[in-house]
Amino acid sequence: MIRLKKLKAKACRGIVDGPDLEFGRDGVVLVGDNGTGKSSYIDALEKLLTGKCGSLDTGDQGLSWSKQGKNVASKSPPEIELVVADGGKTLSITENGATAHCDPPVGAMLAAASRQSFLLRRRTLLAFINAKPADRYRAVADFLRLERFNEFEARIKALLLRCQNKIAAHKRTTEVEQIGLRQQLSISSPTAIDETRCIESVNTTLSAAGVAPVADVHSIADRARDVDVQLAAFSKIEEVQKLQLLKTLIAEVPTLDQLEDFITAYREARQVAVTEEAKLKGSFYQEVLEEGAKWIRADSLKECPLCESAIDPANVIKRVQERLDEHKALSILRASQNTARKNLTSALTDSSSALARVKSKWNDSVGSHLPKSAQDLIDLLNRLATTLAALTEPTVIERDASQLRSAKPTSVIASLLTAIESKLKEYPSTDTYDRLAKAKAVLQAIIIHWQNIAAANAEIARLEDMRSQVQRVLELAEQARKKAVQHVLDQIGEHADEYFQQIHPGESIGNPKLRVTERGTASIDLNCEFHAKSGDPRGCYSEGHVDSLGLCIFLAIRRFHYDQDSGLSLLVLDDVLHSVDGEHRMATAKLILKEFTDHQIVITTHDPLWFENLKAVARVAGRNFSYHRIAGWSLSTGPIWGDHLSDYEWLVSKEAVTAQSADRLIKAGRLLEQILQNVCDRLVVAVPFSLRGLYTLDPLWTSFLPRAKKNKAFYAAAGKEIDKIEELRGLRNLAGAHYNQWANFLTASESKELAVAIVRLRDDVYCSKCNQFIKRISDLGGIWSCKGEHLRYDA
Predict the structure, then answer these.
(1) Is 49 found in the same domain as 9?
(2) 91 phi and psi, to 5 degrees?
(3) Which residue among 443, 470, 497 closes a domain?
(4) pLDDT tens, 616-661?
(5) Based on the domain organization, do 263 and 226 belong to the same domain?
(6) Strand 766-767 relative to strand 638-641: parallel, antiparallel, unpaired?
(7) Neighbours of 754 (CB within 10 A)
């Protein structure tokens, strides 16, 4: 079995540089006030064994070992080393690689530590009890290592999701195919797409084409072949389409009337402009004036750009504007004539181009050359477009118009159309072809789209069946996980109750039940019995009982893990008992040491009485623990070890004989205070109330003394010790005894007498066999006795 020997820590959490934590064969008990660094040792130990720190690596934002694992006053990263023993070998474990990793048993221990729960902190204990069912399940899932269950369920859920995604994809395919069918069959959107509706639409189209109807979709392919046979007669339909295209191109040629309108508009605009120009005195070069003025403005000219004579730019521009304004009417007429000219030449060019396009396809479509009259018309149109592109006299315009009329464009176009119609008569009716082509299109749409829809629907049905089966597998997997978890929880609950009854025997409480709920997939309810009634323990248990319950559940889980894998024999309890009273505290100590003899046990506490209880139980059980007391802590030093022996053990040791009086009396005073706190509590001695709950020697002693003298049997046995303490107490004011100021005034002889008296008083009130202080038993007439009556004082 691997045993921990020493934990070394530096610059780690609250630890500056040690001191080292030494482990006994059976473990270590560490006591110290809150805030003195106890948990820093636990954090360091967990970090080395598991690779993470549960108190920091919680997933909370801004909280992690990398940020808060280092000591706040240190500039260096944490240094942690755990020395372990494997038989006769001593090995070390560090974060940066360790000799221990080469040792198989140590490797097995580290592997088990990463999988098992071995460390309990108080906040973890309370969180489990107070958690919501789902959160409690997650906590237990971590304890029970349900990775394989979760991984299997995750795979099933992924498969289920893939089925659902494929079903959705095929449904989208069906929708797209239905849209295609609606468009091809002219079925409106609100109407359902089914075989009956599709056959009705197809038969309507087939009827229009003179084709026999179909009875169902299975007849579609045969009917499509029938339509192909009929369409074979239209093998030269492309020639018909070419002729139809020629007719379309000819329709784009402007008519003679349209050309006549453009010619007339141009001739009239030109005649008006010529008439107005005849009225001019001299010449009017509008463009020259406009462009010259622009040059003068743009370049700020001082000389004429034509004759290079000096000019006054402002006067010249002024004169230019006067001349332009003077002939404004003529400018408007000239602009109108230019527009009419451009419209005419564009119309002539468009006519020529349209006939040229007809010419380019005529031979291929009609099978002969373009008629000469049409070619002559094309040449005339090109020539007129060129001639009329420049300004000509109205007589020339009229001459050109006469030539165009003589060419008889309307007759030429009509002759072309006649030739095309004559050629079309050689082919079957295009209307029949169009109806047959539409019939084939709808038949082909059914063949393509309906097959795709049918295939998609078949796949959807298959996937729906698969999804149903996968869903059932998932449900069975969840049930199996719940059943497996419940089986384990039942074992844990039984063990937890066995432990709980050892702490709280005969109290009619306990029997914790951890139940995986039927609702959801991952929730756990916690119920316990309270005097034959079952319910949430928080509703009827005291805080101490809740603490005990949480501890027992954790111990049961630890036992379960160890029984499954004994690679890790370690139990760590970090300050878990806060609200447990003295009797139950002692029972808890006995339980832990009895049930975990096969573990090294690490316990931290801030309660010195719990510390003493553990030592007493360990001593009786023959367990070898090391004990450390943290006397103080500071930012610069970290934890400071106190005496490694309890006050009582030190006072009865050889070391106390030769110690300084002050040291002897400091420990004697603390021991007396512990004795009085316990006996006043257990003997029901009234002590003056303290608001802060701090009861020091003076009120404790003055309350205890008269009750001690009143019990004659007890006073007969312990009277000498009591009188000696009272005698020496009377020498000095014990009001400040808690701070041991009074000890500075006692002689060495007095200090020895007082220490001996306190030790003997402790033996009179504390039973080393029962490991508890005497108690007032009201049912037996108020006698004072330990549990086993080894110490008994009749009233």
Answers:
(1) yes
(2) -130, 165
(3) 470
(4) 888 888 889 988 888 778 777 788 776 545 678 778 888 888 888 8
(5) no
(6) unpaired
(7) 25
d(CA 295, CA 299): 6
Give a yes or no: residue 528 inside a domain.
Answer: no
Number of neighbours of residue 161 by Cβ within 10 angstroms: 12
User: Measured at the alpha carbon of residue 364, what is the angle toward residues 359 and 367, in degrees to the nearest 5?
Assistant: 95
Backbone angles phi, psi at 773, to 5 degrees: -75, 160
Region for 532 from its dihedrals, namely left if φ exceeds 0, alpha if ψ lies in -120 to 50, beta otherwise? left
Question: pTM surpassing 0.90?
Answer: no
**306 located within any domain:** no
> Residue for token digits 């006469």?
402
Q: Are residues 692 and 784 in the same domain?
A: yes
657: closest CA among 762, 751, 761? 751
> Are 232 and 333 in a shared domain?
no
pLDDT digits 0-9 by tens, 235-276: 666 777 788 788 888 888 888 788 888 888 888 888 888 887
One-letter identity of residue 482: K
Same domain, 358 and 402: yes
Q: End of a domain among 470, 493, 526?
A: 470
Tell me how far apart the alpha carbons of residues 277 and 468 are, in angstroms, rounded to a whole number: 97
Phi-psi region of 18 (alpha: psi -120 to 50; beta: other; left: phi over 0): left
Q: Does residue 156 come out as left (phi exceeding 0), alpha (psi in the -120 to 50 range) or beta?
A: alpha
Residues 70 and 171 in one domain: no
Q: Which two tokens stand for residue 384?
A: 């007129």
Structure tokens of 36?
Answer: 């003195």
Stated as kind and residue range, the H or E segment containing 728 is helix 712-731
Whether the CB-CB separation of 639 and 14 falls below 8 Å is answered with: yes
Pair type for strands 600-605 and 2-12 = unpaired
Structural tokens at position 505 = 């025997």
The Cα 427–Cα 437 span in angstroms is 16
- How far is it, in rounded angstroms, from Cα 344 to Cα 389? 9
Secondary structure (3-state) at 690: coil
Give the span between the Cα atoms of 365 and 240, in whole angstroms. 8
Domain span holding position 775? 648-793
Same domain for 278 and 385?
A: yes
Q: φ and ψ at 685, to 5 degrees?
A: -90, 125
Q: Into how many domains does the chain fold?
A: 4
Three-state secondary-structure class, residue 526: strand
Residues 409-434 have pLDDT tens digits of 989 999 998 988 888 777 666 778 78
